[in-house]
Design goal:
The complex is a heterodimer of chains A (113) and B (316). Chain A is an alpha/beta fold and 113 residues long. Chain A has one helix and eight strands. The longest helix of chain A has 19 residues. With 316 residues, chain B is an alpha/beta fold. The longest helix of chain B is centred in the first third of the chain and has 13 residues. Chain B starts with 15 loop residues before the first helix and ends with a strand. Classes of the chains: A alpha/beta (113), B alpha/beta (316).
Amino acid sequence: MKHLRIGMMLAIVGLTAMTSWSADQPAAPDAPRIKIDNFKFSPKELTVSVGTTVTWVNNDDVPHTATGKGEPPAFDSKALDTDQTYSFKFTKPGTYKYYCKVHTHMTGTVIVK
Amino acid sequence: MSDYIKEDRSADGIDRRGFLKCMAWAGAGVLWTMKDGILQSRALGAQAPMMGDFSFVQLSDSHVGFNKGVYGNVVGTFQLAVARINALPTPPALVLHTGDLTHLSKPQEFDTVAQVMKSIRTGQSFFVPGEHDYFVDNGMQYKDRFGKGTLGAGWHSFDFKGVHFIGLVNVANLSNGKTALGALGTEQLEWLQKDVAPLGSSTPIVVFAHVPLWTIYPEWGWGTDDSAQALGYLKRFGSVTVLNGHIHQILQKVEGNITFHTARSTAFPQPEPGKAESPGPMKNVPAEKVKSMLGLTSVKYVETGSMLAVVDSTLA
C-alpha cells in the first residue's frame, strides 16, 4: 500500500511537470516563435489566429519568464533558463499582454484573432 | 558662516552647510574628506576602537547556481569573498547579504548559500531577498531558510550598538507586473513609518535592500518606484546609510543626510547603466580580470560622531 501511494505521488508529480513544463513538446515547424534576446521579447507584438501555439525561447545568459499580466495570469512560463523554451496554445481571441517576472521592464503582447 | 539655514531644498530643516557644520562639531577627532562628491570619514587614531565601535560587511548578488563563461565558478568567488572576511584582523560584528543569494531559487542553491554563509567568522548574518530568490515561488523557500522571524515578504529591523538597521524588500511587488521598477508596497511603507517613529533623530540608520532605493536607470528597472516615500520617513535622521545590490557595481550618491551605496557582486559584473544593449552578466571580460570586478563592502561604525565609513574592496 505504501509503495502504491508513492507510485501514485510520482505519477502526479510527473503529470504536473509535463503540463507546466511543456518545453519538450515539439511545436509545428511553422509555429510562431518569440525570441528573448538582450532582455527583449522579439517580436514585441505578435498577431496569431485562434488555436495557434506560440513558443518562447530564451537566448539570454540569465533566466526570464513570459507571464501574462492579470490575476491569475492567462499563461506563465515559470523560470526559463538559457536555451529553454515554453509553448502556449491560445484558444480564445483577445489581446494578451505579458512580461518577465524577473525583469518587469520587459513586456510584450500577443494578439489572438 | 552664519548659524541660520540658508538653503533648505528638501524642507527638512537641515541644509548641507548646516549638516556639515553640525557633523563637524559632533565628530570632533574625526577626519572628514570629500572624495568624488561623497563625504567620507575616518576616525583619527582608529586603531583604538571605542566602546560602541564596530564593523560589518555587506555581501551581495552571489547568484549561486549561475554558471556561464568566465563566471563559471560563482561558489568559488563567493567563498573567496568569505575568505577575505575571515582574514580581517577583527571579525565583523555582522554580515548583511543584500539578496540574489541564488540564481534560480533551487533547493540545492539555497543549501550551498547556507553552507558558505555558515563559514563566515562573524556574530550574525542578516538577509534580504533579491528577485532571483523570490520570483520562482514568491519567496517561500527564501523566507523559510533566510527570513525566519521577518515580516511580510521578509522585511525586518534590529538595533545593534546604537545603530538601527532596517532590511527592506523591494522585489516582491516586482513579480506582479504592476511596476517596471522595484517597489516596497503600502504594507511595508506603513510598517517602516511605525518602525522609525519612536527613534530619536540622532539614531544612525542603516537601510539595506536589494534593488537600489534611488533611481539609477529606469530603462533597466534600476530603481524603486515608491522609494521617495520611504526616504521621506528617514529624512529627519542625521545619518542614514542606504546599502543596495542588484546592479553588480559600485555607485554612490549623497542626498541631504542620506548616503546611497551599491555593492559589487561576488558572482559577475554588470555593465554601467546604458553602456550595453541590456543588463546581465558583462560580456567580453577576460578571465584574469573577473576578480577585479567582484567584491565586498566593509562598513566601519565609529560611535563618536555616529559615523559610518564605507570601504569597497575587490576579490583581485
